Amino acid sequence: LLSVYQGNRDESNYVDEAQAKQDAECLYEAGEKRWGTDEAQFMTVLCTRNRNHLLRVFDEYRKIADKDITESIKSEMSGDLEDALLAIVKCMRSRTAYFAERLYKSMKGLGTDDDTLIRLMVSRCEIDMIDIKADFKRMYGKSLYAFIKGDTSGDYRKVLLLLCGGDD
Q1: pTM for the complete prediction?
Q2: CATH number, domain 2-93
Q3: Which fold has domain 95-164?
Q4: Mean pLDDT of 15-20
Q5: Which of 37, 118, 145, 150 could disulfide-pair with 76, CB 3.0 to 4.6 Å?
């Protein structure tokens, strides 16, 4: 994950079709096609290629492996590495849907993961909260505002609802 930390990701929008096919083949050979997994190959591709390129790689991977890249990651990886690679794939597909999912998971069930809820609400409120709210409602059938209102109380609720920016 040092590649992510160092910011070595290509930020262009360019997609080299031949390279995308080659990357998909490399991922297949590093995981599904062999005994054991070459985690370094997954890290190299997922941490350094640009979003558009990775979306093409994911399409090519599905053709080669006859399964989604997330299924392969779940079967080939475990623990924190699995979580990190799945997060990368989800973010590449839709950053706002990824954050909507994280917000939902921070509040569902008994108790609230306050650290995650606060971090996401504060860090995303002026960036893409409108899109996150739309994805949240589409994915969970209830507005983020209503979810926060039902899960929190007092001044904490008031601040979170202000960060949310109102009900949809």
Answers
A1: 0.86
A2: 1.10.220.10
A3: Annexin V; domain 1 (1.10.220)
A4: 95
A5: 37
